[in-house]
Amino acid sequence: MTDSVHREERTTGAEGVLITSADLAGGGVRGDDPDIRGKFGVFGGRYVPEALIPALDEVAAEYEKAKTDLGFIREFDHLLRTYAGRPTTITEVPRFAEQAGGARLLLKREDLTHTGAHKINNVLGQALLTKRLGKTRVIAETGAGQHGVATATAAALMGLECVIYMGAVDCERQALNVARMKLLGATVVPVTNGSQTLKDAINEAFRDWVTNVDRTHYLFGTVAGPHPFPEIVRDFARIIGVEARRQVLELTGRLPDAVAAAVGGGSNAIGIFHAFLDDENVQLHGYEAGGRGAENGEHALTLTKGSIGVLHGSRTYVLQDEEGQTIESHSISAGLDYPGVGPEHAWLKDSGRAVYHGVTDAEAMEAFSLLARTEGIIPAIESSHALAGALKLGRELGPEATILVNLSGRGDKDMGTAMKYFNL
Amino acid sequence: MTNPTLAAGAVERHLRARRDTGRGLLMPYVTGGITPGWTDYLRAFAAAGADAIEVGLPFSDPTLDGVTIQQAGETALARGASTRRILADLSGMPDVGVPLVASTYYNLVLHDGHEAFCAALRRAGVGGLIVPDLPVHEADELTDVAADAGIELVLLASPATPQPRLAEISCRSRGFVYAVSLMGTTGERAALAVSAAELTERIRRVTDQPVLLGFGISTPDQAREARRHADGVVVGAAVMRRVLDGAGPDDLRAFLATLRQALDQECDRPR
């Protein structure tokens, strides 16, 4: 099946040129897909109310069909090219790399996509899936508002009703994105219970889903949550690494020595890592938000400082106290401010295939400003964590090394934070 | 399951025995640690004619709970409630004469470890456990560990559950089968959901275990109607709203007595 799809895709020209069935990992190219119960080793699974199990089964079954359906792949491919603006380029940043021990740094420019971040890849895929499911309404959670804006965008494009849950605290902090979502026709519901941030927005979205599941798809925003979300979101984000791997080979004639990405829930990181999993000589480095530092407890170091637990339907690393209650995370970057992480990252960490580190607010903001001044690119603060990590990594690997960095989004949304931080 | 009573635990035996006398079963819920003297509510529930009592162990992220139980959980946590302290409170009180069933989200079980968690429940005199975010296929390991510790792990069935899966849930559930009356979260509702009757009837087809209907049962009329389909009812948000509004054990005893009376009246009717 995979081979024939490949051949057909390659000869049709106009459609399916970016992505093939094999590029969606479900084409069977790898044997490390989650098992039938959605487990990556001991991680993942479905820790959700019984009422949601039939809906998750339905989503999983529909996606199984879609991922080898040439019509679906072509439609997704078409949207990625003509709407999201793919392929995104890679940019070499020599002036920035002077601070990285002379290593060669290549940025995968997800910041150049429509809506300004990698999130558009996943929402387009899942919005298409929503239509296949025959559902007319999507709900989503959002922290900083980026996934909410992306979801509202896809919903507007495809004529779906859209409700976004957003912590009341975040609504205030990200008023501009609230306005964007409203302009795109979405209803934004401020969540006033719990800590009024991302994790509570997810709780509230689950409550909506269990109530309205017959006509609603939960357009989950990251590679966390119950099976099949970690697999589906990864597959729709996987185009990032598929493109980047080809582009680096074309540009340099070889694979990079390392790939670096920021990790909150983990979708942009899985998106760029996954195409390199089989390339054993390519190191994979994920950078979590160290916030104000690991010592004072104000961070989002889920993989590096957390312990195994269950949050939002998935068994993974979480930040929890000695009683098992979830601890609030802290980061200057709202997109990384989450006390859980995708189960595949937990699995990659434990297997040693990927390595995870912390980057503090201060280190990320330094990289943020350095990239702006040396290369004329204002990155998202989330992506700045990966940039800061790459600076350190370059100094370790030396001037012969090539490092691919996922510039997962642009920094326009972060101007308020930057104005305050740098007294602009 | 030729002779299910043979393998039945204490909670199931107790509920079966009461059901078999024709009694409608009443299981009120209280969030552990909600007030300084919260265990007084348990005594009031028993005195009002409860057949079992559900004790919630509050969790920071209660995704299946509506606003009332959420607020109760937050209030208890803010007071410093924890699994350890709640179970210590239970250990310190005399037997109330009806089974205690703990309910909580899976992270709190996993955090302590299955064996340690179930052993702690047993030491506190708890006989059953409800974990609403642990569906049947994820629950196998805990079911076995719990059974070894003398704890009956209750599984939940939902109106969306297909019939083959419902059979599996009914077969693996211990204590009783918890029928979730509607698609939604915990909380009071104006009327019993229409899905309640259909779900209960579908469970009946595959098991003779006691079936308790929960979610949205808040008034004597609703309890009476629920009793027409199920063996009994679970009443949570209607209790906790009163507790949050300042009602004491005596007030709750009076409220539950109205539900008890409704259930008793219903069972006098020809069925």
CATH topological fold name of the largest domain in chain A: Rossmann fold
Ends apart, CA distance between termini of chain A: 56 Å
Overall pLDDT of chain A: 92
Helices and strands of chain B: which structural class? alpha/beta
Regions with little confidence, pLDDT below 50 for 5+ residues of chain A: 1-15
Structure report:
The complex is a heterodimer of chains A (424) and B (271). Residues 1-15 of chain A have low confidence and may be disordered. Chain A has a six-stranded mixed sheet with strand order 3-4-14-9-10-13, sandwiched between helices. Chain A has a four-stranded parallel sheet with strand order 7-6-5-8, sandwiched between helices. In chain A, helix 11 (239-252) crosses helix 12 (267-273). Chain A is built from 17 helices and 14 strands. Chain A folds into two domains: 31-82 and 120-234, 3-Layer(aba) Sandwich (Rossmann fold); 86-116 and 235-422, 3-Layer(aba) Sandwich (Rossmann fold). Helix content of chain A is 43%, strand content 17%. By secondary structure, chain A is α/β, with parallel strands linked by helices. Chain B is an alpha/beta fold and 271 residues long. Chain B has one domain: Aldolase class I (TIM Barrel), CATH 3.20.20.70. Chain B is built from 13 helices and eight strands. Chain B has helices at 4-7, 10-20, 39-47, 67-78, 83-91, 106-112, 114-123, 140-148, 163-172, 195-204, 220-227, 237-244, 249-268, and strands at residues 25-31, 53-56, 100-103, 128-130, 152-157, 177-180, 211-214, 232-235. Chain B has an eight-stranded parallel β-barrel with strand order 1-2-3-4-5-6-7-8, surrounded by nine helices. In chain B, strand 7, helix 11 (220-227) and strand 8 form a beta-alpha-beta unit. In chain B, helix 4 crosses helix 12 (237-244) and helix 6 crosses helix 7 (114-123). Chain B starts with a helix and ends with a helix. The model of chain B is unreliable at 1-6 (pLDDT under 50). At the A-B interface, helix 2, helix 9 and strand 11 of A face helix 4, helix 6 and strand 5 of B. Chain A: It comes from Planotetraspora silvatica. Chain A: The beta subunit is responsible for the synthesis of L-tryptophan from indole and L-serine. Chain A: GO terms for molecular function: tryptophan synthase activity. Chain A: Keywords: Amino-acid biosynthesis, Aromatic amino acid biosynthesis, Lyase, Pyridoxal phosphate, Tryptophan biosynthesis. Chain A: The modification N6-(pyridoxal phosphate)lysine is found at residue 119.
